[in-house]
Amino acid sequence: MSLRYIGPEDVAGNLSWRMIADALEAGHRLPRARIGDQLLERDSEALLTRCAWIDGLGMGVKSASVMPGNEAAGLPTVQAAMLVFSDDTGTPEAVLDGTMVTDWKTAADSVLGARYLARPDSRKLVIIGAGTVAGTLARAYAELFPGLERIEIHNRSQKRAEDLCEQLRRDGLPVIRVDSLPAAVGDADIVAAATMARTPVLMGEWVSPGTHVDLVGGFTPEMREADDGLIAKARLFVDCRDTTLADVGDLAIPIAAGLIAPADVRADLYDLAAGEQGRTNDLEITLFKNGGGAHLDLMTARAIMAAAGGFL
């Protein structure tokens, strides 16, 4: 049997953010994943490989190349592929477009966290950033929180923010560009940050009681999007303790400084799926760190394979 390749065209019209979020939730009711990462580097170039094994779902390996020089040649700087193996026999089942898996996984991870932690009657979403992830977050939140009446986009480049707003408005989303971030955050119900910041872009003094904060952008120990004030006053949650506490600056830096302890992170998605309490009242600030992980890629890949059809 030949190995099947699955790209975006194979699932067009057959996937939704709710389907992927539901798949992630179901995956977190299975035994905790075994996960491992490897990073190979050559000057500014890199190959990152992340793997996971989940009893009941099988094995997955996603590898991504990072080649900054490709930009001059008009090629993508990041390219990825994911290989999925059978849990029963270890047989390779499919190769999936890695960027497709990442796009669906990242936003669905965030909205699953918000489903546990944000107020269901949330009306206003603020997104910091205007890249690809910001666009998928807007679409995912709009689907999972149909009561949203306003989505505001803030970015250092006003043109990029307006370009993204135009794209999202064509999809029927109630989106506007905002230039004053403190004012936008002050009356937001949900704030999602999707930046490459190494110094905080979201300050605790701006965030009002009852807000849910979703930190998506930081993925190294040096990167952070929230300041110490926000970390100190929020009720803290993560998608996976193993991929966040020591590996992303939003938590690793305040932990190293003694501002918080690892135990101050109340729960991860495994805990929440098992019934651990998330938001306790309408006035507390909840903060969810989306750190990713190969186990989330595998859960997402399985849902994509089901949508593509032909897999038992």
Sum up the structure in keywords.
312 residues; alpha/beta; ornithine cyclodeaminase, domain 1; Rossmann fold; 2 domains; 8-stranded parallel beta sheet; 6-stranded mixed beta sheet; 10 helices; 14 strands; 32% helix
Write a structural description:
This protein is of the alpha/beta class. The protein folds into two domains: 4-102 and 295-308, ornithine cyclodeaminase, domain 1 (2-Layer Sandwich); 116-292, NAD(P)-binding Rossmann-like Domain (Rossmann fold, 3-Layer(aba) Sandwich), CATH 3.40.50. Helices cover 32% and strands 25% of the residues. The protein has ten helices and 14 strands. The strands form two sheets. An eight-stranded parallel β-sheet has the order 9-8-7-10-11-14-12-13. A six-stranded mixed β-sheet has the order 1-6-5-4-3-2. Helix 1 packs across helix 10, helix 2 packs across helix 3 (132-144) and helix 2 (98-117) packs across helix 10 (294-308). The longest helix is centred in the middle third of the chain and has 20 residues, at 98-117. It is globular. 45% of the residues are buried.
At a glance:
With 312 residues, this protein is an alpha/beta fold. 32% of the residues lie in helices and 25% in strands.
Gap between N and C termini: 14 Å
* Proper CATH architecture of the largest domain: 3-Layer(aba) Sandwich
Strand order, largest beta sheet: 9-8-7-10-11-14-12-13
CATH class of the largest domain: Alpha Beta
Briefly note the CATH topology name of the largest domain: Rossmann fold
Give the helix/strand class.
Answer: alpha/beta
